[in-house]
Amino acid sequence: MSESTYDVVIIGSGPGGYVCAIRCAQLGLKTAVVERWPSYGGTCLNVGCIPSKALLESSELFHQAKTEFKKHGIDVDPTFDLGRMMKRKDKIVTALTRGVGGLFDKNGVDGIQGLGSIEGPGRVKVTASDGTTRILQGTSIVIATGSEVSSIPGVELDGVHVFGSTEALSLDSVPGHLGVIGAGVIGLEMGSVWRRLGSKVTVFEYMDRPLAFADEDVIAEAQRAFRKLKLELRLGVAVQGTEVIDEGVRVTFKARNGDAVESMVVDKVLVSVGRRPNTDGLNAEAAGVKLDSRGRVIIDDHFQTTVPDIFAIGDVVRGPMLAHKAEDEGVAVAELIAGKSGHVNYDVIPSVVYTAPEIAWIGKTEAELKEAGVAYTVGRFPFQANGRAKALESTQGFVKILADARTDRVLGVHMIGPYVGELMGEVALAMEFGATAEDIARTCHPHPSLSEVLREAALDAGGRVIHF
What is the C-alpha separation between 238 and 253, in angstroms, rounded? Predict the structure, then answer.
C-alpha cells in the first residue's frame, strides 16, 4: 500500500473542500483533495445549485415567452425541447466541474479520486473504484463531505417514481402531475421548473407556510406568486407515506393536527424534506471523531473536531447547508491551519430562493427581534414604484430593511422581487461593516436600477422615502 505525505488532506471537493484546498495551497501548504465521485464540485456543481439554476433559467424563459412577451410587442408560439434543455444544463455542469480540476492544477493541489476514510490522526485511506488502496499522511485533515437527500418514514426513494433533487434535475419527460414533499428551497425551485414546463404540481408541506425561516411579509407575497403560477400548496399536512401503483404514486397525508387520512395519486414524487450530513464510509466515529444526534460532525468555534488536527466544514457540521457558508468556512479553516486568523460571521450569511420572483434574506426577522426584545425601525419599498422593474415587466415584491431603533444599524434585510439575489451582495457588505440604514440611504445608487429599491427602503427607515 503506497503512502504520500501532505500538510493538509481534505476529504470532499464541494464548495467547502475545493475552496479550502486552494486557500491552503495559496498559503504554502502541500495539499491533497480526496473525491469519491468522478467529477469535482460536490453536490452544488454536479446535482445542486448549478444545474438547478440552469433549469430554472431555461424554464423561466419559456414561461415568459408564453405569458410575458406579448407585453413587449413580441408575438411567439413557443415550444421547448427537453433534451436540448438538459444538454445545456449538463454542458454548464461539465465546464464548471472541469474548471475545479483546472484550479487544482493551477494552484498545485493534488486531486485524488476514491473514497476517503479516516484511519486515525494524520491518516486517510483512499479506496479507488478498482478496489486498490493508498494511505495519505496529513498533518491536518479536513472533513468536507457535504450532505445527501433525506426522507421521512413511509416514503422510500426508488430513484424513478419517488426521488430526490438529483433525479428531479434529469427527468426525460415532463410529469403530468408531480407531487413535491416539502415546501423548502429545493421543493419550490424544482416545483417551479416543472410547473413552468407543463406539470401540474402539488406541494405538501408540514408547516403552515412555505420557507418556514423567511420573513412573514415575504412569504405572504411569495404565496401570491405561487398562486399566479398555479403551484398548488397543501400546507399544514403530514405525509404518511407513498405507494407505487399502476396509475402512478399514491400519496397519503392528513392534516398535521387531524386524524382523517386523505390520498392523492400523482405521476411522480419529489422528496425535498431536507438533507442529512454525509458521513457514510468516513469511519469518523471509529477514528474518534464524534457526531451529534443529527449525524453532524461536532466542532468547536475553530472547526476543530474531537480529534486533534482533524477539522470539519460545510454541510457536515452545524449551521445552514449553503454553498457560500461552506466556502467561507473553507477559507477560515485553511487560514487557521496556516497559523493565521480565520473567522466566519454567521450573522451575515445570506439565503436566496431562485423562484420567480426571487426571494432573499439576511440577518434577523421581525419575529426574532420581537422575541429578543430589540426595538427596531422598518423601511420598505415596492418594486412597483421602480423604473427599472417596470421596464423589466417584473414589479411584484419589495425590499424590507430592519434597523436598530437606537443605533440605526442594519439588523436584517428581506426581499422578494426581480434578481434580489444579486442585490444581496451589497446588503451583506453593508452589514459586515456595521452599516446603518442611513449609510445605505446616503450612498448614490445607479439610475435606473433595481438597487434603488434598496436605497428607498433605507430612506423609508428614516421616514423620508422619495418615490412612494
Answer: 5
Q: How far is 301 from 341, CA to CA, in rounded Å? A: 12
Long-range (24+ apart) CB contacts under 8 A made by 432-435 are: 432/345, 432/348, 434/409, 435/409, 435/410
Alpha-carbon gap, residue 343 to 429, rounded angstroms: 15
How many contiguous H segments (helices) and E segments (strands) does the chain have? Answer: 13, 22
415-450: pLDDT as tens digits:
999 999 999 999 999 999 999 999 999 999 999 999
Domain 348-461, CATH homologous superfamily name and number:
FAD/NAD-linked reductase, C-terminal dimerisation domain (3.30.390.30)
Residue 210 burial (CB < 10 Å; 0-12/13-18/19+)?
buried
Q: Which amino acid is at 38?
A: P
The active-site residue out of 302, 343, 447, 467 is: 447
Task: Kindly give the residue spans of alpha helices, DSSP state H, lying in 404-468.
Answer: 420-432, 437-441, 451-461
- Residue 19 has φ and ψ, to the nearest 5°, of -70, -40
Q: Give the number of other CB atoms < 10 A from CB of residue 243.
A: 16
C-alpha–C-alpha distance, residues 92 and 90, integer Å = 5
Q: What would the pLDDT profile of 245-300 be if each residue is shown by its tens digit?
A: 999 999 999 999 999 999 999 999 999 999 999 999 999 999 999 999 999 999 99
Q: For 392-409, what is the mean pLDDT?
A: 98
Pairing of the two strands 115-120 and 123-127: antiparallel
447 is catalytic: yes
Instruction: Give the SS3 label for residue 379.
Output: strand
Topology of domain 162-273 in CATH is: FAD/NAD(P)-binding domain (3.50.50)
For the chain, what is the mean pLDDT? 97
Q: Indicate the pTM of the whole model.
A: 0.96
pLDDT tens, residue by residue, 157-197? 999 999 999 999 999 999 999 999 999 999 999 999 999 99
Tracing cell 428607498 back to the chain, one arrives at 456
Burial class (CB in 10 A: 0-12, 13-18, 19+), 143: buried
Q: Residue 2: is its pLDDT beyond 80? A: no
Q: What angle do CA 161, 181, 96 make, to 5 degrees?
A: 75
Q: What is the structure's pLDDT at 3?
A: 78
Q: State the cell numbers at 73.
A: 410587442
Nearest CA to 393 among 357, 447, 360? 357
In the chain, domain spans: 2-148+276-344, 162-273, 348-461
C-alpha cell at 259: 386524524
Comparing CA positions, the residue from 352, 354, 416, 355 lying closest to residue 226 is 355
How many Å apart are CA 162 and CA 252, to the nearest integer? 14
